[in-house]
Design a protein that fits this description.
By secondary structure, the protein is an alpha/beta fold. It contains 14 helices and 23 strands.
Length: 470
């Protein structure tokens, strides 16, 4: 949803759980894949494919005039870029012609200006043939006022069988969040609403073979009826990936059926990294603050430089050099990196302004960097699943460093200099010091001199990054 257009406040949080009989998917689907487990917090394990994966946000109209077919035409390109999963912006039928619309009028239909169900079924099949997963952006919090259920309440008032499908005040007025006047909140205390939504989620898994969902405004349903999300997880089975559009600073989501949540602050819709980049000379210090203080394990946080709600693209606001360093950060931290349509070619647009199809030109030569980062994340054990330890940096508040360690000598030292002096001094633990006086930069293959000792010293110009390994 377009959070950047709204003055949003933090949501309150509740917790409960209950179960349902008879709504699970077929066992052949539910048990089709192995899963990996995060330790602690009573969380369910994530699908195995998520480990080391790069997710790519797809706005179909940006791919061409025949959106779903044109996405299919770009699958080989995305595979070559190291993309493991596609997150498709909302595809459901809508009464809003915008390129990205959260005003759903039919949860079981594809919007015809994007294509047909057969087009989508083919997209999923072709993606799977290339080893890529497909995630749908799904909208369970509300329907459009154009949805048949809401229209029936307009026509029949309290006599409508769908009157109680919507949250209402004491006067019977259907409620909405913020300025979303055409998006009425569904009443999840109504069994028929829960059944309708479980059926809708299940349909796309069962009939179309999708691998998961980015769940829009998951915080809204949790705020009103927190028992629904555990119920959905039980109904759709353990192997469907669920990403909550909600803050990972609240562990409720990964404890109640979601595999991951957004890298937000405690303020709804506010990006944790938003204040990091404006002053590059302080970026390292600001990152330490932004990355701290979470109960949700870091591997269950979806991280991003751009998405549908970040407004002008990162490159527009902070420049090419800054994006290069930030892209290294995005791909080397634990968590799930999300690359958004055209980010890897420096495309500049605002998602809700209905931009034309992208040119896919790469004037800044960003594409090879993104391809290399995806390759390293998928192939290097430390970047794929290693532990994460921050490394103190002396006298350079614009620099940030950390170690990823997968054990048995498989570790990397990531150093990012967003601004400030080129001399980097690190208080590197002894286990990660190089006795030979050099480490190899995985980005370039070059040997980088490193002065060993309690304080590790090296030269790194501003707006540069290194991924060093022994």
């Amino acid at each position: 949803m377009p959070f950047k257009r709204l003055n949003m406040l933090a949501a309150c949080f509740l917790l409960a759980a209950w179960t349902i009989d008879g709504c699970a998917l077929p066992a052949s689907r539910a048990n089709a894949e192995s899963r990996v487990t995060s330790q602690g917090l009573g969380m369910s394990p994530m699908p195995a494919w998520v480990e080391g994966a790069v997710v790519y946000g797809v706005v179909p109209p940006l791919f061409g005039e025949d959106p779903l077919q044109d996405v299919i035409g770009r699958l080989d390109y995305l595979k070559e870029q190291g993309v493991d999963a596609l997150w498709l912006s909302p595809l459901n039928a809508t009464d809003d012609p915008s390129a990205i619309s959260y005003a759903v009028t039919d949860y079981l239909a594809i919007r015809p200006d994007f294509g047909t169900q057969e087009d989508f079924r083919r997209l999923v099949s072709e993606a799977h043939a290339r080893g890529m997963r497909v995630l749908m952006d799904f909208v369970p919090n509300h329907t459009s006022t154009g949805h048949p259920h809401y229209q029936d309440t307009v026509a029949n008032g309290r006599n409508s069988k769908h009157w109680n499908d919507y949250v209402r005040d004491k006067s019977g007025v259907a409620q909405h969040y913020f300025d979303w006047t055409n998006l009425k909140n569904l009443n999840y205390d109504e069994p028929a609403v829960q059944a309708m939504m479980i059926d809708a989620f299940s349909f796309w898994v069962r009939e179309m073979g999708v691998d998961g969902f980015r769940v829009d405004a998951a915080w809204g349903v949790k705020d009103r009826t927190p028992s629904f999300w555990p119920r959905l997880r039980q109904a759709i089975g353990p192997n469907v990936f669920l990403l909550a559009e909600a803050s990972a600073r609240d562990p409720y989501y990964v404890r109640n059926g979601f595999d991951a949540a957004y890298d937000w602050t405690t303020e709804l819709g506010k990006w944790s990294w938003e204040t990091v980049w404006a002053k590059p000379g302080q970026a390292g210090d600001r990152l330490r603050t932004a990355l701290g203080g979470r109960e949700t394990p870091p591997e269950r946080i979806a991280r991003f430089l751009n998405n549908n709600d970040t407004g002008a693209r990162f490159i527009t606001r902070f420049g090419v050099a800054q994006q290069r360093v930030a892209a290294v950060l995005l791909h080397t931290l634990p968590g799930i990196p999300v690359v958004y349509s055209g980010e890897e070619v420096g495309a500049e647009f605002e998602p809700y302004e209905d931009p034309p199809p992208l040119s896919w030109q790469d004037p800044h030569r960003l594409r090879p960097l993104y391809r290399k980062l995806a390759e390293l994340r998928g192939s290097h054990p430390a970047l794929r699943s290693g532990s994460w330890v921050e490394v103190p940096v002396r006298q350079n508040p614009g620099a940030y460093a950390f170690v990823r360690d997968a054990g048995r000598g498989a570790w990397t030292l990531v150093i990012l200099n967003f601004g400030g002096p080129s001399r980097i001094e690190l208080e590197l633990p002894s286990a990660y010091r190089s006795a030979k006086g050099s480490l190899t930069d995985l980005l370039t293959g070059r040997s980088v001199p490193v002065v060993p000792g309690p304080t590790t010293r090296l030269e790194l110009p501003k707006q540069q990054a290194l991924i060093l390994a022994p």
